[in-house]
Amino acid sequence: MKAVPKVNIDGLYLEDTIVDDAFNGVVPFYADIEPQPPADPDEVEQEPAPEAEQPVETPESEIAGYIVSIAVTPGLYRPRFDLDGWEAYQDAESAAKDVFQAEYDKWAALPEEERGEPPIYQAPIQPTLWIEGLTPEEIKEITRPQPQEPTEIELLTVVVEGIQQQNAQLQEAVVSSGEELSAVKTASAEQKMTLSALGSEQVKQDLSTLDLKQQNNVIGAELVRKDISILDLYMQGQVLGQMLAALELKLLANGTGGESNVQQ
């Protein structure tokens, strides 16, 4: 047994099939034709009478492809068997056999002493029957460089590089955070010093304010005393005024010789 290729009706390779070692040439294989349902539902066949005998119908078959004894030529993207070339080769081989047979019959008809060497059959050279089934454009398309799938090592390398990059970013973040923390600490110390200075200044201002308040209290008390002294002087002035008025009346009375009406 041996494996030989099967092709479709266009000669395109389908698969290998197992045949006998003696198999040679190109032979067709067939496929049954499935009956088509009637297009018109009204054309449904009526069931015959039970007593009527109906002939057994054998399913029709058609050529589905060919089994080829010639091995596929390696290096083809989509092998196609040249069925026309095979037919032409068969015709050439048949013609060569006819020529050989005619020459042999002619040779055999001669007397034995005149025959000489018998004719030799010259078989025609078999052409290359397996050809490319794709067009140049299709070959160009399928042979275009495709992106290769990364290997496991390449994938692991990418993962490691990603981890290293993340680690570097974390380290940078830690350093940056340390610098920011140091800056915050410095700013906090400066703020504490500023607050301390502001606190001392505030204490000084509070003391000055308290001193001013005390001075204001003293001045206020002094002003009150001054006001009381002025009020006392004013009252004394009033009394002196009244006394002067009384004296003037006495003097006036004495000067005129009359009796004074002023009661002492």
What does this protein look like?
Helix content is 54%, strand content 13%. The chain has helices spanning 83-109, 112-115, 136-142, 152-256, and strands at residues 2-8, 13-19, 26-32, 61-68, 79-81, 130-132. Mean pLDDT is 82; it is low at 258-264.
Structural classification: alpha+beta
Helix content: 40-55%
First-last Cα distance: 178 Å
Which ranges are low-confidence, i.e. pLDDT below 50, for 5 or more consecutive residues?
258-264
Count of helical stretches = 4
Shape: rod-shaped
Tally the beta strands.
Answer: 6
Write out the strand line-up for the largest beta sheet, numbering strands in chain order: 2-1-4-3
What string gives the helices and strands in order?
A: EEEEEHHEHH
Question: How many whole angstroms does the radius of gyration measure?
Answer: 69 Å
Largest sheet: 4 strands, antiparallel
Average of pLDDT: 82
Strand residues, percent: 5-15%
Give me some keywords for this one.
13% strand, alpha+beta, 264 residues, 4 helices, 4-stranded antiparallel β-sheet
Task: Give the topology, please.
Elements: E1 2-8, E2 13-19, E3 26-32, E4 61-68, E5 79-81, H1 83-109, H2 112-115, E6 130-132, H3 136-142, H4 152-256
Antiparallel strand pairs: 1-2, 1-4, 3-4, 5-6
